[in-house]
């Protein structure tokens, strides 16, 4: 696959990561959360959305790989903190989605970087 197609796929993944982060940011308005669970989801989802935005404009795999770490934390924290079952499962499902998107995007951007460096 050529670089332009990989960049296009990366843009799609980045926009979807921004959407996942945005959804997770507004989740506490829809599903009640308090305490450490609330602080954790607000910080982590802001990081996910911000890294998705950075990845949208930066040809580098780092933001995606950092989002992979954030997605793992979102999944763990869904069950580490006290919250309703619905909130925990919502967070866990979106953590898995974020994980898949970030790995996909990271792999695409890593390949773009490899192709770029091999041509330099």
Task: Provide an overview of this structure.
The chain has 120 residues and is mainly alpha-helical. It has one domain (3-114). Helix content is 88%, strand content 0%. The chain has helices at 3-30, 35-57, 62-80, 85-119. The longest helix has 35 residues, at 85-119. It is elongated. The mean pLDDT is 92.
Descriptive tags:
single chain; mainly alpha; 4 helices; 88% helix; 120 residues
Distance between the termini: 19 Å
> What Rg, in angstroms, do the CA atoms define?
15 Å
**Total of DSSP H or I helical runs spanning 4+ residues:** 4
Identify the overall geometry.
Answer: elongated
Number of strands: 0
- Strand fraction band? under 5%
Order of helices and strands: HHHH
Major sheet, described briefly?
none
Uncertain stretches: none
Please give the domain count. 1
How helix-rich are the residues, as a percent range?
over 70%
Average pLDDT works out at 92
The chain-level structural class is mainly alpha
Concise overview:
The protein is mainly α and 120 residues long. The protein has one domain.
Layout of helices and strands, plus pairs?
Layout: H1 3-30, H2 35-57, H3 62-80, H4 85-119
């Amino acid at each position: 696959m050529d670089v332009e197609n990989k960049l296009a796929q990366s843009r799609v993944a980045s926009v979807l990561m921004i959407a996942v982060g945005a959804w997770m940011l507004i989740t506490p308005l829809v599903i009640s959360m308090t305490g450490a669970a609330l602080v954790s989801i607000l910080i982590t989802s802001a990081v996910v959305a911000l890294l998705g935005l950075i990845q949208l404009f930066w040809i580098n795999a780092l933001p995606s790989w950092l989002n992979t770490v954030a997605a793992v934390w979102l999944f763990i924290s869904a069950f580490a903190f006290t919250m309703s079952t619905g909130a925990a499962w919502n967070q866990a499902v979106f953590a898995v989605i974020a994980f898949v998107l970030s790995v996909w995007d990271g792999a695409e951007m890593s390949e773009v970087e490899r192709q770029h460096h091999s041509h330099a």
